[in-house]
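Lay summary. Proteins are chains of building blocks that fold into shapes, and those shapes determine what they do. In this project we predict the shape from the chain. Here is one chain we studied, written as its sequence of building blocks.
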Amino acid sequence: MPASRWPCTWVTILRGEYIYKFVSTSTWSAADASPTNRITTGDKYLDNGKLYVAKFSVDGSGQWIELSMSNTAVSGATNYKFADNGDVAMNSRLAADAVGATRMDRPEWCAVNPINGEIYYTLTNNANRKVEPVGSASAQQGLDAANPRSYADAPTATTAAQNVNGHILRMRELSNESAATSFTWDVYLFGAQADADQSLVNLSSLTNDQDFSSPDGLWFSPKTGLCFIQTDDGAYTDVTNCMMLIGRPGQIGDGTTPDAGVHQGRWQQAEHPDPRGRQAHGGHTAPFPGRPGGLRNHRLHRDA
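And here is the predicted shape, written in a compact code that computers can read:
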């Protein structure tokens, strides 16, 4: 990333938590890709910069909100009295609460598409996503554009509506600039079983050889640009163990349909095998208000 400020994006791996970005004040140097002293190089990029949290809007736009004492929503927060920017960094979740950032469905991993620079985030699931939330926002979260599903499905109780199967979200920074404070986004892929209601749950129209649940690990091949997805699942265990999927990523707004392509074979990983049976469907709710971005076939490409 020549002549760019060094960015770092990460997530809080909990239900109803946030997506963050840190932008260093230092400009990236290619020589630092193989540093002699990694500690010194880390200090160069991580000691000074700006911390942001993501807020997603229903129209497919979004903004990075700065978390610092210069933001009056932080310095004047009523939920917690921040002493300084160090306190903000240590208690970033409280700062994100104060600025009204978007609470996400258990964000896990993120990775950058090497073809176009779009950033992908896995949102594994969220038992606290409700159509009619009760209590505080930290206890239960209502539906929003970036987290639009809550439905009942086994092996959870039929009365326990939630985001059972998770989804994958992607974003593009304005002008592909790492220090941008705005972005566009859509949902790349919704996890679901193939026979689930396509208007309420299986919004990516997955078929029997594509369906999956609870995306977790995420990586892009720099050679092919294919997207590798690992699942960490306890909700689809009558059909499969946890698995390795491979997808063609496309780009934001493409909305393309599943692609059979020229693929051979299939990878699976038995991370958390579970012998429990799956109960019947029940009570699907929450139509998707945003823009799903169609699945790409998950079968293994020979040159991946």
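What the prediction tells us: The two ends are 24 Å apart (CA to CA).
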